[in-house]
Amino acid sequence: MATYRDAPSRPNRRQFLATAGLAAAAAAGTQELAFPAIVRAQEPIRIGQLIPFTGFLGAIGEYGKQGATLAVEELNEKGGALGRKLELITEDEANPGVAVQKARKLIEKDRVVAIEGLVSSASCLAVGDEVQRAKLLMINAGANSDEIRSKRCHRYVFSTEGCNTQYVNAIGNWLIRERKVSRWYFLTSDYAFGHDLLRVARNLLQANKGTEVGSDLAPTGTTDFSQYITKMKAAKPELIFHNLAGADVTNFLKQYAESGMTIEVAGGVIDSAFAWPVGESLRGHFPIIWWHELNNAASRAWAARYVKRWGRPPDNQAYGDYLAVHAIAQAIEKAKSTDGAKLVQALEGHTLTAAMDGLKGRPLTFRAWDHQLLQPMYVVAARDKAKWKDKWDIFEIIGEVPARGAALEDIAIPKAESQCQLEPLS
Amino acid sequence: MTPAVLAEFLLNGLVLGALYVLMALGLSIIFGMVGIINFAHGALFTLGAYAAYQLQGALGFSGALVAAPVAVGLLGMLIEATLLRRLYLQDPLQGLLLTFGLAMVLEQGIRLVWGLSPKQFDVPAGFAGVVQLGTLTYSKYRSFILLSVVLLIAGLALFLQKTPVGVIVRAGSRDPMMVRLLGISLTPVLTLVFGLGTAFAALAGVLSAPLAGVQPAMGVNVGTAAFVVVTIGGLGSLPGAIISGLLVGQVVSLSIYFQPRVAEASMYVLMAVILLLRPRGLMGERWEKFD
After folding, report:
1. Which residue of A224, A229, A281 to mutate against B (max B Cβ within 10 Å)?
2. Residue A417 in domain
């Protein structure tokens, strides 16, 4: 594909039009504003997507791509943005090094107006630095580390994905209040995301005067958790709180049930794509950003469209990338431009519009000072297999946090604790 | 550590080791006979798990446990007969490159056919739950893995020691020229051995599926571990593969108890130490045909 695009023999329409546009603009003087706009109308607005297709997070890339594709298709049916069609270019984020290379390719070669996606926090941090240098809008639709919104936040980076603090506050307060569990054992993925989640969960446990009875770090891609489980069993905690990601979640939860453990288990974050394969042995409580059975008409209607298009229900990552593409389109319409700085200004303090309001039945707003989308989380519990209506029906929703009527700020990083210092917009 | 916890630790290590042994036996038997280091072994492990996923609806778990390795073994025989066979007289590097490429083709093929999402593969109904031995509770399914591997090793030993084909395999792996001079064609035996080795990898994949989830990259770690195990045990030595597999299982699992962060590195450290002390591995001998 690349060689085809680069082939010198192929007349480069973009260059031709740009040159023609420039010549015309120079000649026409005052018409220079109008003419390039007509020229550009020929070309689609490109949105870059970086999402993992390989490695231990690989499974959710497929969902993310389907979600973003569906968003682009829906928007194009209604005429795209600024009268131009949208085009999605998806690349594998693989690992932080590759992700940065792919981001450069999207920016320099494909000339995307924004990048969205990202799942690994490590990749997201690396690409965030890159888009800040390039002055290009990025929407993080899948990476959770607080760092992305706090210490290493950037003016050009927004997050539709919830951060670890939002997730942990949602599940942790509920566990302590409802289940009265105070002796916790942590099992954590040994990379940026896991460490950050562990820090947040520890703070919460300390604030509630709980005890940490043990903590282990497991490398990503661990397939055998039996020894960790044996250690947990011996430590006799009241709750096992895992800070794992990706395929490790599937393996751990399967082996946890298979080893006959009955201690309460909960996770700091869950991706349904990794919970579905656990099947009937799934147990525990988790915070989730979105679930296809939410009691909300718009949300269910979208899930139905997704099923029709792709033949299976969307997971939370499909939702995340769907939302991110819509947020970019809303920014373009609001700014009436595809210029990076103008898009950033449009999104700061932006409340998602009726065209796509976040599907949660409450107004959702990007905080101006750290660019986090404020939103509720849902505490879900593994549902008994006897009550499943199909194989996707593994969770029941226990509650929305913060509850209706309470402020969405309640679970977010408080401004006083945030280390976010956004760069000046230039 | 109470005795029950210690016992559970050793058992966990044993199960991990048993799966390493299965993988390593397959690799070792192929190397001994065919002289090729099969880089596609991890991908065949994954393929075994997917084949079982596909077949268990129709055949049940026990049916899939037999049918999936047989199917993958047949594929292995096909690969040997059509591709590998052409490379026996070439530079060994060619075989390495071919199997390396094969590994990528298989893994991407799996992604194309079954998609990226992990597949649901439950612990078979009869093996769910735990067995109680005094104060020790242990997973039924893991006990079943141990038992199957023990039976399989016994079966392989009987096959090699007692059957006429087994004798040809053993003789052929040491002195193929002499076997040919005796008027025995090694061509079908080589195909059979390659099929057997791949079937072992596939079986390890099926046995792992209920524990480790079925996903396209599931064979990567275990494939690498199998190479380490074979190197420690001594290339081509079957008893070496067994001893070394169990040893690596215990070392990895005990290092998780004491210091989980070094667990991954522990098997490589073990390999380095053993290679320093015994450059041919634990049970490695001098093989004229490879020197």
Report:
1. A224
2. no
Q: Which of residues 128-147 of B touch A (CB under 8 A)?
A: 128-130, 137, 139, 141-142
B251 near A CB under 8 A: no
Note whether residue A272 is domain-resident: yes
Q: Is B221 on the interface with A (CB under 8 A)?
A: yes
Co-location of A380 and A340 in the same domain:
no
Compute φ and ψ for B170, nearest 5 degrees: -65, -45
- Token duo for residue B222: 């275990």
CA distance B155 to B218: 27
Cα–Cα dist B271/B277, whole Å: 10
- The SS3 of residue B209 is helix
Contact of B121 with chain A, judged by CB distance below 8 Å, is answered with yes
Nearest chain A CA: its distance from B266 CA (Å): 13
Q: How far is CA A271 from CA A248, A276, A315, A372, B128, in A?
A: 11, 9, 7, 19, 25
Q: Report, in angstroms and rounded to the nearest whole number, the Rg of chain B calculated over CA atoms.
A: 19
**Closest of A52, A69, A62 to residue A324, by C-alpha:** A69
* Closest approach of B219 to chain A, Cα-based (Å): 10
Nearest chain B residue to A312 by CA distance is: B117
Cβ of residue B118 closer than 8 Å to a chain A Cβ: yes
Distance CA A215, CA A231 (A): 10
Write the CATH number for A393. Answer: 3.40.50.2300
Please give the C-alpha separations between residue B161 and each of A299, A305, A317, B155, in angstroms, as whole numbers.
65, 62, 55, 10
A22 and A117 within one domain: yes
Q: Which residue has the higher pLDDT, A24 or A75?
A: A75
**Would an 8 Å CB–CB cutoff place B10 in contact with chain A?**
no
pLDDT of residue A14: 52
Residue A83, classed as helix, strand or coil, is coil
Flag whether pLDDT at A9 surpasses 70.
no
Tens digits of per-residue pLDDT, B33-49?
888 889 999 999 999 99
Number of independent structural domains in chain A = 2
Residues A256 and A394 in one domain: yes
